[in-house]
Amino acid sequence: MAFQVLTPDEKLAALKWPRMETVDRITLAPEDWLIVCAGFEDRTLGVLERAVGNQTPFRVLLILYEPDVPENKENKIREICQRASIKPIEVIYNRHDQAGFGRALLEKLEPCRGRVVVDVSAMSRLLIVQNLVALGARPQGFKDCFVAYAEAKIYPPTQEEAEAELARSEADPTLFILFLSSGVFEVSVVPELSARGIPGAQTRLISFPTLDAHHLIALRAELQPSRFSFIEGVPPRPENRWRQEFIARMNRLSEIKDAEFCKTSTLLYEETLDCLLKLYRDHAVRERLLLSPTGSKMQTVAVGVFRTFIPDVQIVYPTPRGFRSPESYTYGIDQLHLLSLEEFRIDE
Questions:
Q1: What digits encode the pLDDT tens for the residues 36-54?
Q2: Is this prediction's pTM over 0.90?
Q3: Which single residue of 10, 32, 110, 237 has CA 20 to 30 Å from 153?
């Protein structure tokens, strides 16, 4: 009887990928843990507020950001927990020193005997990848693990505002557009997400172009990649579709020689995961792959699942220096989504 030995990417591709569900609330038992992050957007509170309701108390792991942003909602999270008779366990995530956070997360979760729900709504992209890779590397893997995600109602800027800023910068090259973050602190490479490259191989940067064009500038300057693959995000709402073409113009993607492009939904993680697997199959044998998770939150969930299975891809991340206008990053809380990760079993 012949046995077929699958490579890690073949194992991932062979699994039945779960579908994300749209839900009104999340029902948690006393032994379940909800991981929330004290960000500054309105949707920071979306999952927690819809989880407490009239239920019995559950466990909350509260991730606090350093350096602190005054608009961060840690006190509001503590108030919601207090009203629900929940005493959150707190852990600090330093944006400027992220190494080893996955290990710190698992230490806090050691008493957990129930489900783990990771609310990615207010998490930085690198933090999402670190959390998912740490959970997936446990002996039980993603068993009883879920991702929760709250969409925002409004995603600034408007098309008119964006076009005006771009025209202003084109008229005066000394002006730099800063829509969301205020520059790059450093291109972060944390040890737990590093990978050995092919000796002497050229490097390929796989990244998600964003409204923050300085992210790609920093990645190119610091890493000096030989080749480029860009995963362009397609917003699910028609009124936001202008962003894809605008982001391409803003990042001058057409001027990057021999770059390849892939378009995936910013909400449906499966499209991004499928694209990442294709890029890996096409290039991993001959090139060292550098993957920068600068896309949407759910595109980044796909990166986290992908990196859990395929550790020979290097994660690199342009850590923001700060945030230009936290109070207007996004507005409101819209649909709530829940994704089970249990189907992503590494041992099969």
A1: 999 999 999 999 999 998 6
A2: yes
A3: 32
Omega into 67 within 30° of 0, i.e. cis?
A: yes
Pick from 32, 250, 44: nearest CA to 157: 250
Task: Tell me how far the alpha carbon of residue 297 is from its chain's centroid.
Answer: 4
Nearest CA to 266 out of 222, 232, 225, 292 is that of 232
Q: Tokens at residue 58, please?
A: 């559950």
**CA nearest to 207, candidates 313, 286, 80, 132:** 313
Instruction: Identify each DSSP E strand in 8-119 by its residue range.
Output: 21-23, 33-37, 59-66, 89-94, 116-119
Tokens of 141: 């893997």
Q: What is the pLDDT of residue 1?
A: 45
User: If residue 275 lies in a helix (H) or strand (E), which one and from where to where?
Assistant: helix 269-283
Task: For the chain, state the CA radius of gyration.
Answer: 20
Whether the per-residue pLDDT at 175 is higher than 70: the answer is no
282: amino acid identity, one letter: D
For helices 125-136 and 297-309, the axis angle rounded to 10 degrees is: 40
pLDDT for 213-250, tens place per residue?
Answer: 889 999 999 999 999 999 999 999 999 999 999 999 99
pLDDT at 18 over 60: yes
- Cβ atoms 60, 52 nearer than 8 A: no
Is residue 298 within 8 A of residue 269, CB to CB? The reply is yes
Q: Estimate the crossing angle of helix 159-171 against helix 242-250, to 10 degrees.
A: 20
> Would residue 24 be called left, alpha or beta, if left means φ above 0 and alpha means ψ between -120 and 50 degrees?
alpha
Q: How far apart are CA 311 and CA 289, in angstroms?
A: 11
Report residue 133's pLDDT band, with 50, 70 and 90 as the boundaries.
very high
Count of other CB atoms within 10 angstroms of residue 243 = 21
Q: How far is Cα of residue 256 from the mean position of the Cα atoms in its chain?
A: 25
Copy the structure tokens of residue 250.
């803003």
**How far apart, in whole angstroms, are the C-alpha atoms of residue 248 and residue 211?**
9
Work out the burial of residue 4: count CB atoms within 10 Å of its CB; fewer than 13 is exposed, 13-18 middle, 19 or more buried. exposed
